[in-house]
């Protein structure tokens, strides 16, 4: 009996991981439509194009009539698109859900490897797995999206583990994959350079040199293996590094500040701070603090908190780093959590572990059930059939002026034979034509939202079509009902979509 209990205790993190994966699978498969109509769809469309034309032959210019990618043959998400190819036979809806499960499984494997490296007690590992997946709603939601960007999260965690356990080869390999996966390899690269500085702070010159060597080897290997190496480098320099700093443009929600999403993060930050105070009171030296990796993870956490306050998407790196920090703290000093609770809570509460477990379980369950309820309630709003029906009368090869850039993601999946004026992010329109982006933005001003005159609407149409000549105009009804009404009543244009969500007009009628 004791041996069976010991085995169960050791296997507990893996059991919790497997049950978590099953729970997420049930959540995903209870939905009839994708979790979100965003980037995963366009990557699926590109993967399909790659499977037809060859991995190195496909690029985003095939899908655009205007904007940055219409004039630049570069794929900043090369390996991310390739990663979708095995899921193509399943179709976009099932394929995206299984891809999301694959990403979560990969993150679990890497995180459990971290617990092994840290020699984390099994119960602590199991709790950390639950916290990682479910405690922060925004991170949990992003895991469900099936975005290939989330492939970089486990690789970033692997770089952190490799830095602490002195495995520079793993850092080089992970960085190479990150470069091929996405432009946001900048974040894992920053982690790697921070690891070099950390080793230098410990006066470990040899390890720092070896680590720096593998960082550059991984970086150069990634660019060398990329099919558009030179264009990719120019893209990073001229585009990606400029986008967060562009003034006065409507960036996606993930590129805005994450300040309003940080309540759960503050809870973990508070716990980590308390544990640190107890650890220092117990006499840990700065040398020990640095050698075990705590100083490295503290610096990374502070760095990613800063990024998170600027860009919400930094939660992909902040949350795993914060949970790794908590896990390492509980591994370096076993029993520190109990000692901390005894120090700050009444005796009856501090010794009641079972109550603490139930409270944590209730919190995690509330996140899962709340997410499930929200996604189920909005499931019908994410039907791809809406876009198939709206574009059914648009002929093959037509140029579509989609006023709303996020229309591109589902549209390119159901109608990859068309060419779109905007998409992926409004910053790409700005880089191509700031004036065009200004005209799109003017539709959300009070003048166009209330009662624009017929002359104003005609002038707007003439100006935007002069910049972006197109065959069809597309509007989301929920955002542009006023101008759609003007086009139909005053300009006598006919909506050919027959859709309640989308309006499609022939541009030649203007």
Give the strand order of the largest sheet, numbering strands 1, 2, ... along the chain: 2-1-3-4
Distance between the termini: 81 Å
The total tally of domains equals 2
Derived structural class: mainly alpha
Task: List segments where confidence is low: pLDDT < 50 over at least 5 consecutive residues.
Answer: none
Q: What oligomeric state is this?
A: single chain
Number of helices: 25
Please provide the ordered H/E string of secondary-structure elements. HHHHHHHHHHHHHHHHHHHEHEHHHHEHE
- Helix content, binned percent: 55-70%
Number of strands: 4
3D shape:
globular
**Rounded radius of gyration (Å):** 25 Å
Largest beta-sheet details: 4 strands, mixed
**Nearest-integer average pLDDT:** 87
Beta-strand percent range: under 5%
Question: What this model shows, in words?
Answer:
- It is a single chain.
- The protein has 510 residues and is mainly α.
- The chain folds into 2 domains: 365 residues, no CATH class; 125 residues, Rossmann fold (3-Layer(aba) Sandwich), CATH 3.40.50.
- It is built from 25 helices and 4 strands.
- Strands 2-1-3-4 form a 4-stranded mixed β-sheet.
- Helix 5 packs parallel to helix 18, helix 7 packs antiparallel against helix 8 and helix 12 runs parallel beside helix 15.
- The longest helix is centred in the N-terminal third of the chain and has 28 residues.
- The termini are far apart.
């Amino acid at each position: 009996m004791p041996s069976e209990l010991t085995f169960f205790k050791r296997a507990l993190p893996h059991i919790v991981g497997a049950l978590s994966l099953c729970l997420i699978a049930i959540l995903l498969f209870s939905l009839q439509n994708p979790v979100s109509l965003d980037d995963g769809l366009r990557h699926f469309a590109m993967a399909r194009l790659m499977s037809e034309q060859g991995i190195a032959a496909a690029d985003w210019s095939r899908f655009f009539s205007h904007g940055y990618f219409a004039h630049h043959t570069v794929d900043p998400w090369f390996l991310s698109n390739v990663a979708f190819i095995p899921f193509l036979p399943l179709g976009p809806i099932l394929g995206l859900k299984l891809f999301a499960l694959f990403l979560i499984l990969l993150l679990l494997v890497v995180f459990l490897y971290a617990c092994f490296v840290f020699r984390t007690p099994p119960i602590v590992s199991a709790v950390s797995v639950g916290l990682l997946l479910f405690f922060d709603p925004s991170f949990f939601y992003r895991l469900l999206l099936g975005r290939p960007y989330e492939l970089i999260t486990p690789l970033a965690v692997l770089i952190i583990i490799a830095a602490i356990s002195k495995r520079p080869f793993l850092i080089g390999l992970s960085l190479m994959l990150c470069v091929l996966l996405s432009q946001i390899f900048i974040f894992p690269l920053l982690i790697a350079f921070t690891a070099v500085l950390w080793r230098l702070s410990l006066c470990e010159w040899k390890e720092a040199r070896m680590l720096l060597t593998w960082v550059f080897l991984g970086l150069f290997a990634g660019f060398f293996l990329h099919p558009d190496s030179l264009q990719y480098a120019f893209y990073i320099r001229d585009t990606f590094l400029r986008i967060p700093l562009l003034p006065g443009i409507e960036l996606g929600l993930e590129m805005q500040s994450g300040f309003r999403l940080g309540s759960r993060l503050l809870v973990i930050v508070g716990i980590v701070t308390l544990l640190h105070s107890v650890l220092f009171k117990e006499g840990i030296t700065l040398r020990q603090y640095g050698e075990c990796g705590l100083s490295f993870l503290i610096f990374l956490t502070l760095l990613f908190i800063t990024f998170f306050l600027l860009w919400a998407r930094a939660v992909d790196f902040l949350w795993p780093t914060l949970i790794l920090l908590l896990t390492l703290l509980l591994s370096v000093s076993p029993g520190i959590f109990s000692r901390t609770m005894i120090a700050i809570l009444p005796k009856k509460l501090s010794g009641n572990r079972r109550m603490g477990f139930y409270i944590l379980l209730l919190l995690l369950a509330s996140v899962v059930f709340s997410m499930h309820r929200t996604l189920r309630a909005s499931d019908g709003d994410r039907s791809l059939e809406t876009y198939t029906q709206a574009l059914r009368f648009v002929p093959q090869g037509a140029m579509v002026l989609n006023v709303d850039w996020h229309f591109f993601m589902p549209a390119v999946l159901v109608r990859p034979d068309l060419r779109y004026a905007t998409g992926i992010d409004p910053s790409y329109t700005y880089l191509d034509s700031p004036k065009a982006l200004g005209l799109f933005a003017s539709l959300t001003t009070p003048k166009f939202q209330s009662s624009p005159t017929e002359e104003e609407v005609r002038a707007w149409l003439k100006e935007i079509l002069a910049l972006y000549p197109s065959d069809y105009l597309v509007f989301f009804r929920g955002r542009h009902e006023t101008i759609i009404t003007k086009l139909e009543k005053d300009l006598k244009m006919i909506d050919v979509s027959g859709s309640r969500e989308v309006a499609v007009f022939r541009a030649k009628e203007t």
